[in-house]
Amino acid sequence: MSLSGLEKEKDRPEGWNRPRLIEPDGEGELLEIAMGPHHPSTHGGFRMDVALDGERVIRLKPVFGYLHRNHEKIAEGIGYLGSMPYTDRLDYICSLTNNWAYALAVEKLTGQEVPERAEYLRVILGELTRVQNHASSIGFLIQEMGASGTPLMYAFREREKILDLFEGLTGSRMMCNYMRFGGCRVDAPEAWLTAARKVVAGLPGFVDEVDRLLTGNEILMARTQGVGVLPPELAVNAGVTGPMLRASGVNYDIRKVDHYGIYDRFNFRVPLGDHWDVYDRYMIRMLEMRESISILEQALKDIPAGPVMDAKAKIRGFRPKPGEAYGRIEAPKGELGFYLISDGGPNPYRYRVRPPSLINLTVLEDMCLGSDVADVVLIFGSVDIVLGEVDR
Amino acid sequence: MEEGLKIELGKQGVFVTTIEELYNWGRRSSIWPMQFGLACCAIEMIATTMARYDLARFGAEVFRPSPRQADLMIISGTVTKKMAPQVVRLYNQMAEPKYVIAMGACAISGGPFKQGYNVLKGIDRYIPVDVHIPGCPPRPEALIQAFMTLQKKIDGQNLTGEGRPRHLDAEAQGEFPVPVQGEHDLEPSSNRLVWPLPMKTGIRD
Amino acid sequence: MKTIEEIKAAIEAAVPGAGVEVVPNASPSGQHSLRLEPSHAFEVAKFLRDDAELALDFLSNATGVDWPDKEVTEKVKVKRLVTKTVDGVEQSAEETVEESRKRVEPGCLEVVYHLFSMAKKHGPVVLRMKTVNRTDNVELPSLTPVWRSAELQEREIFDLFGIVFTGHPDLRRLLMWDAFKDHPMRRDYVDPDDYEYEPTAHEQVLARAAAHTAGEQIAGASAGAIPGGGQEGIGGK
Lengths: 392, 205, 237
What we know:
The structure holds three protein chains of three kinds.
Chain A: E1 31-35, E2 47-53, E3 56-63, H1 71-75, H2 79-82, H3 84-88, H4 95-110, H5 116-147, H6 150-170, E4 179-180, E5 183-184, H7 190-214, H8 218-224, H9 232-237, H10 243-247, H11 254-257, H12 278-302, E6 323-331, E7 334-342, E8 350-354, H13 356-360, H14 364-368, H15 373-383, H16 387-391
Antiparallel strand pairs in A: 1-2, 2-3, 4-5, 6-7, 7-8
Helix pairs in contact in A: 4-5, 5-6, 5-12, 5-15, 6-7, 7-12
Chain B: H1 3-11, H2 19-28, E1 33-34, H3 40-49, E2 72-76, H4 84-93, E3 99-103, H5 105-109, E4 131-133, H6 140-155, E5 180-181, E6 186-187
Parallel strand pairs in B: 1-2, 2-3, 3-4
Antiparallel strand pairs in B: 5-6
Chain C: H1 4-14, E1 20-23, E2 33-36, H2 41-50, E3 58-67, E4 70-86, E5 89-105, E6 108-117, E7 122-130, E8 139-141, H3 150-160, E9 164-166, H4 203-218
Parallel strand pairs in C: 2-7, 8-9
Antiparallel strand pairs in C: 1-2, 3-6, 4-5, 6-7
């Protein structure tokens, strides 16, 4: 889309909910560049049409759809269980939380109960996913800042240990396809729980190491503090969720609000940010990793014995009664929700994914206007998106 | 020259080889891939370059962001019809000799998303692919094996004669036409030179 | 949080004339919805956001749904002139006869909004709006001026379903490219013809290959050259 013919502030009708525009100072033309779709820092195929006045960003229009794989249309033809492997590929770094959100939505639609051991396993795998997602996100953010891969190496080292756990339990490193409607696919043997305890015991040391390496680093602080400020009223109105919302000071964590699963049994805090900038988002992710480790320790200690799947639950060929349901969880990137309309047949009539990454990008333009083009990469990295979820 | 003689000479400090072997050895030991991750397979590609499955020891020392400086394009992830013109354009911008690895089921043939109105059913419809890696996503070890297969292929390329690579052949084209996004589909929907119709109508031999 | 009937009463008290009806949800989730009239939807949305008790400041999800035209067969009692032979004499008399008639119920496009409250930590409140039909009257008011999170989601609904949101600041396609002409998530969308290579040479496969090659030659391509022109749907896949 062409950016020439800029809309002026005075030309807008009243009451539009749009970013506050800035005017270029000085005369001369604006430089229009397209950042992407092939760009080392855009996390995949994503384009931003930027209009620059020197180094300052005057307009920014994101362009989506480079990875649109019509997941929702495929889901209308393959049945409820058939969509489960496709949910892995939505947010491909955190496949288990995607599975959980979908299983939760279907359980809301049918009213199925989940056995206790399955709930504990879901929490353990969900929090492990959160830890490795936040570690990777910080790693990618710092790499885009120019650190040439070192924090990413540390993050991926931990991630490999967690992926080994996933592979041991579910059979696959990334596309786990493990949750089912009414429980989990297979039970975790005692040896796996012991291995998980060992990995979790090593995680606080890793977070301390990254903390010592990065948090007081002057380059990081100089480049991220005061950059990409997102005021809380705009964040709430724009539907931003997840660590980005909490870094803007709004206390809304779906684990505490919806009380889904068995999160009420665990003792954990919700960190909030004061300055609403990129540095806060980085710190929130570090602190959330520590809270996740605490939940993991509690869950691994208390996990009871029992079945992981209701024996009478029908997984294949099931036809829920006509109706609809919206189920959501606190995924590592934000609120991941699934909206299902059933017409009584074996396939969902309408299957909709509420993508946190896409909706968090609503405010990308607001945060980037007025800052330098070098900061756009950082702000974009701090939103922490995955293109599979944005475009589905 | 026979192996025994080579070893004997080697013990005396004399190294004997052909120009072809030396040339190909230099080329295959320093293939620099382009940073081109599209989807989930990109994360496995990044994991392959990380400390556990280090790809740099095979010669892929740096991933260049610019196509002008890269030798290899690893198409990792689903190529959609919206992205396809950019992929072909990037391939055209790479300098010869250039190679393509199609990583994952989506790059080979559309993968699990084949029933897609926006999914290109395989990148080999528009550009020639050297190595295909099946998997969804393929493990890092599979990517390393594909890399080694590509190295073997480069080792076997003759410098003269019929099978010579494109950059030594004045007639061979290195630029492929970029498809245009039409009203319902990409136009043309495939490149017949690269992806020929394999079966003739009515002929079963 | 109030029940769905209380919310409906509150809306009708605040925005008089707003046609709101409750749409019950048969599934165990219990998430009933409110159907709004498009004419007053904007004021209702503002009331829901600004009300002190409801404080629905977070629009979580906006979905489009396609309800295609349905053919309905029903039995209707009609008075008809029927000729009957009684004792060898033909007589015609009026009788009530049951006939089955086919009728097309027009479809529509629907948009569903899920609202939550970050201040009060309750929800969801589900709103629905229907268009008049699927062909020419597909306009609905945009709720982007009330909740900014609808901006990208309504663009996606416009792209994939074709609902035009009046009052949206920047309504253009989100996921497909600009020159694309269809609305792919509709139930009557036909995929473009995409020939697939198949190694087993049985009859259906050969027939598909023949249809595909014939289509290419019609477009004016010669052997060995790159064919120009698009491939339209030739007999489907």
